[in-house]
Amino acid sequence: MIEEQALDPLKHDRAGFSCGVVELDEYLHRFAAQQSKKGVTVVRVLVDTAAPQAILGYYTLSAAQVDCTELSEADRKKLPRYPVPCFRMGRLASSAAHHGQGIGKLLIGCAVDRCLMAKEQVAAFALIVDAKSEDAKRFYQHYGFTTCADSAMTLYLPLGSVAI
């Protein structure tokens, strides 16, 4: 059974994870535990409960804001004219050994679900992502993310009516 867990450096094999993108691998191997411990980001991993040390994929979440002018005209009409609170998914990666098996979709679903739960306690309009490549951008767009006006590689997903 696949399960989402908080990254535990003593339990999860970070060094054994490879997604094929050097920056995303290096982040998990070298920086994820530190940044999580310092409260900079939350790192969540997907594991198979039959082999819980092996990381199938991971994502990070932190607080963020976006200037309302970055949003689509339809979204701007509903919002105040100052920066809007959001969540930021700074990184998302699935193990290269599991590409094409829906791990990315599960990771987005888990991240959105976590944001919706947090949104019950702390207001946030959307989940923001910074796509690292055109392929990543298309991946996010497939799941309903919209490109920000002044930043072609930054996308957002309003959390009001999400259906992943």
Characterize the structure shown.
There is one protein chain. The protein is α+β, with helices and mostly antiparallel strands and 164 residues long. It has one domain: Aminopeptidase (3-Layer(aba) Sandwich), CATH 3.40.630. It is built from 4 helices and 8 strands. Strands 1, 2, 3, 4, 5, 6, 7 and 8 form an 8-stranded mixed β-sheet that branches.
Total separate domains: 1
Q: What top-tier CATH class fits best?
A: Alpha Beta
Helical residue percent band: 25-40%
- State the order of secondary-structure elements, H for helix, E for strand: EHEEHEEHEHEE
Radius of gyration (CA) equals 16 Å
Q: What is the β-strand count?
A: 8
Topology summary:
Elements: E1 2-6, H1 22-37, E2 42-48, E3 51-66, H2 73-76, E4 84-89, E5 92-94, H3 103-119, E6 126-130, H4 134-142, E7 146-148, E8 151-158
Parallel strand pairs: 4-6
Antiparallel strand pairs: 1-2, 2-3, 3-4, 3-5, 6-8, 7-8
Short description:
Helices cover 28% and strands 32% of the residues.
Key features of this structure:
164 residues; 4 helices; alpha+beta; Aminopeptidase
